[in-house]
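User: Look at the shape:
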Amino acid sequence: MLVRRQLAAAHSVQDAARVRAGLARLAELGYAPSAETIELLARYVPDEDMAALRLRFDASRAVVQGSRLFTTIPASGRLIEGIAWDGRRDRLFASSVVGRELIYGDGENWRSVPGLDAGSLFGLAIDDPRRRLWIASGAIDQTPSPETAFRGLIALDLDGLQIVHRLAIEGEGSPADIHVAPDGTVYAADPANGTIWRVGVGDTVASVIVPPGRFANPQGLVQSVDRRRLYVSDYVHGLAVVDLNSGEISRLASDVTTMLDGIDGLARYGDGLIAVQNGTSPRRILYLELDRDGRRITRVETLESAHPDWGEPTLGVVRGNRFLYVADAQWERYGGGGALTGDGPTRPTAIRELSLRGRNF
């Protein structure tokens, strides 16, 4: 995003050298500007060089696909953001932002969990050893009646679907993406003010491990294999690493030149990370291979890119050797207070399944 901002600034002052450098950098990163942007900026670049850039941008737009449709959630769900898979009961849970409800089903029959008294629901995460489903609840622009929304974390007993924990967040914080570590510790991120919270097993309040303002827009987060660090997707600046002992923040280094901003969902698979990247062009799902220490990216594999059946992919969950993800959240269809925008009805939400078996990781 920084490169795009610099490119826009260069165009605003008609700095041809900086525009050429910005376009070359986007091509190197694998970013593909819109046709309108390319035509707008082509006048700054010699024809031969622009022809070469167009070829590189076209290559970046190439479709990579390998998933299949797993199920669809009825359009009545109204802006599905997160999902969680209960392997013991073969159930998929889904969170609704506008409907302010938790939906679950077996792919054919969908039900709503009553009695949550929540706000908009976002990230979901299952703590299977303790049979808990953790839910992030809060309020954003699309939330109907935001003044009534519960802001905090809710834990359900997975078998009885009854509330066992309800932890309010102080102030106007609104957790969105969450992660449950193997020891049952819950981590949550607030994309609006940058806070990262932690809730240990038995805690009755959420403690702040990263205060507001340190991150621009934290989204997906996941603990490292050695449990010493937390990987956090800062939507604006890329992937960061939080030292869980000191609270120190650093950037996840990369040996590979590629886009690492615009990542929404983040999941761990083996020793690496799966990233759902919906804030770039093209939208992609990546596998990020890490070095032995987990401190730098050594290889990037594009699992899917510019899928023709996508809307806006958001969050996903690893299910054995497969990755389930929300392929069409339809954020663009909802305005303030959850009002429907645009023409026609909303679509059912596609949940796609991507096989991870047999890949080089």
Remarks:
- The chain has two domains: 2-60, 68-355.
- The chain is about 15% helix and 40% strand.
- The CA atoms of residues 306 and 334 lie 23 Å apart.
